[in-house]
Amino acid sequence: MPRILALSGSLRAGSYNTQLARLASTLAPPGTTVDVATLHGIPLYDADLEEHSGIPAAVEQLKQQILACDGLLLVTPEYNNGIPGVMKNGIDWLSRADRTAIFSDRPVCVIGATPGGWGTLSAQSAWLPTLRMLGTREYHGHKVLLSHAASVFSDGAPKDETLERTLAELLTGFSDYIVQQTR
Ligand code: FNR
């Protein structure tokens, strides 16, 4: 039974990416679970802090959440055509906590949401060199590039059936990929 952790890269209370992660948690195929995590409480990476105080509690907690799952769904915002610093910082801390156990051969899929028109395409592409470095197994079978997220997630907005179908298809494909990869 595959367990997926959807990690939102935004700290904002009204984050479209966190809302997309939550939507994913309602659309998991039968036999698969999707839990949602965020990066709240993780300090800026500082090698002096690591040397004096070790891995911060919030990083340890997120590490345990990832180790308890079979696949990681990165739900990325896009800043200036790239990866937001908050999200890269979180992944950098995790790589210091236990890069091999957390990332090596772990099935990973990247999706994202933006109020803009390009669906976080640049940010999703920008993750690839980092994921290659970390040794993850990326799933590319389906894409979720959510543009105009403000209208999708605004109060009273009608259900976006196309988004729900696309996200459900991605989750089914990713879930099958996880089973195949962990056999
Ligand atoms: C943005 N935003 C943005 N959007 C985009 O599609 N491409 C981009 O290059 C950028 N660049 C950018 C830079 C900075 C510094 C900020 C603060 C924002 C807009 C961004 O997508 C928007 O703020 C989203 O709402 C962020 O995601 P959450 O917080 O809603 O999950």
Textual characterization of the structure:
There is one protein chain. Helix content is 48%, strand content 15%. With 183 residues, it is of the alpha/beta class. Strands 1, 2, 3, 4, 5 and 6 form a six-stranded parallel beta sheet that branches. Helix 3 packs across helix 4. It starts with a strand and ends with a helix. It binds ligand FNR. The site of ligand FNR has 14 residues, from helix 1.
Bound ligands: ligand FNR
Q: Mind telling me the C-alpha Rg?
A: 16 Å
Strand content range: 5-15%
**Structural class by sheet pairing and helices:** alpha/beta
Distance between the termini: 12 Å
Residue runs with pLDDT of under 50 for 5 or more positions: none
Mean pLDDT: 97
Q: How is the biggest beta sheet arranged?
A: 6 strands, parallel
Give the H and E element order: EHEHHEHEHEEHH
Overall shape:
globular
Number of helices: 7
Q: Count the strands?
A: 6
Which bin fits the share of residues in helices?
40-55%
